Amino acid sequence: MFTYKKRLLSNLNKSCGNYLTPCVIFLFLFSASVAFAQDAGKKVFETKCYSCHSIGGGDKQGPDLKGVTTRRSKEWLEEYIKSPTAMSKKDPYAAALFKKYSPEVMADQTLSQEEMDAVINMIKTLSANNEIFVPSGAKLSRAIEPNDYLEGWKLFTGQKRFENGGVSCNSCHSVRGLGSFGGGTLGPNLTAVNVKYSDPELILILQEPNFPTMTKMFKDHKLNDEEIVQLVAYLQNAKAVNPEAPVVKTVPSGTIEPRFLVVGFLAAILVVVGFNLVIWRNRHSNVRRDIVEEAKYEELD
Ligand code: HEC
Ligand code: HEC
């Protein structure tokens, strides 16, 4: 072990000459900074682009960005990302994109130069390695509890106000079964939104909505962690039902959720197992008592 270390050091010494220490420090900083830049790029992409773009996962609201760094120059990309609409007025390629994806529009993105470099490099690296962008996974601040569904419904329909003053979701969105609370049509119907997006994606949309209309609405009125838990609980329930099915109920009431059935079933099993355990233990101690008694008699004999 020791000789191995020595050999490693002397090898390093050979390639670094007399500058062993500075060389090692440089290598360390270099690899750390590469990893850091990748992380920075992923963070920008996850919070600012991922709701509309994938890298290698297919088109979403916007085109799949895999390989875009080989199709376009870095200068073009920078200018485009900063102001896509302006570009579509002068650049034929951008104009064609704009037309193809209409009515979806990419809003101007305000990125610092570091963020711009980081995100473009990240797209380039993933594309070159044939890797798909996987979000780090937005998480809820706590587990969902049974009552959250109802609270989420109240928030969604504006019966309960958002702490930071955001507009209630049903001003722009409808969900099957909203009934008399109605729902707006500016945004898409969200009944099957939890089929369309995975849970982390949905959570991310609520944490950092970056659809132009919603960004504007919630930029200065962020949803808090509790509200996000409750809204996700509400939207999750939409997944359980067939979005095509006719509207049956207008108000979420005391229906038995599958979750409760499962809990009830498990509780029943526990009771049975526990009961058997008690009987078994008693029986066991009976047997023991018999043995002990027998032993006593043997001693007496
Ligand atoms: C609201 C959705 C949305 C967001 C957020 C968004 N984009 Fe877009 N993006 C689009 C759409 C839609 C297009 C197609 C052009 C159009 O209609 O504006 C597009 C086009 C592009 C293109 C050109 C693609 C090609 O094939 O040439 C690039 C590059 C791009 N976006 C990068 C980004 C980056 C980087 C971010 C994050 C900083 C981002 N976009 C955020 C929707 C979005
Ligand atoms: C001012 C109107 C407005 C309000 C208020 C609003 N949204 Fe949206 N939302 C939109 C629009 C418009 C889109 C679609 C953007 C697009 O597809 O480019 C959208 C998209 C979404 C999506 C993605 C839907 C999909 O099919 O891709 C989700 C999820 C969502 N909103 C949830 C919410 C929730 C939850 C609230 C309440 C906290 C809310 N929105 C409040 C306008 C709004």
Describe the fold and architecture.
With 301 residues, the chain is mainly alpha-helical. It folds into three domains: 2-128, Cytochrome Bc1 Complex, Chain D, domain 2; 148-240, Cytochrome c-like domain (Cytochrome Bc1 Complex, Chain D, domain 2); 258-301. 59% of the residues lie in helices and 0% in strands. It has helices spanning 2-16, 20-49, 68-71, 74-82, 84-90, 92-101, 113-128, 148-156, 193-196, 199-207, 212-218, 225-240, 258-300. 20% of the residues are buried. Residues 61, 104, 166-167, 169, 171-173, 186-188, 190, 193, 196, 202, 205-206, 211, 213-214, 217, 223, 231 line the site of one heme C.
What characteristics describe this protein?
single chain; 301 residues; mainly alpha; Cytochrome Bc1 Complex, Chain D, domain 2; 3 domains; disordered N terminus; binds heme C
For the report, how would you describe the main beta sheet? Answer: none
Which residues sit in consecutive blocks of at least 5 with pLDDT less than 50? 1-5, 240-257
Give the total of beta strands: 0
**CATH topology-level fold name of the largest domain:** Cytochrome Bc1 Complex, Chain D, domain 2
SSE pattern, N- to C-terminal: HHHHHHHHHHHHH
Total helices: the number is 13
Distance between the termini: 69 Å
Radius of gyration: 30 Å
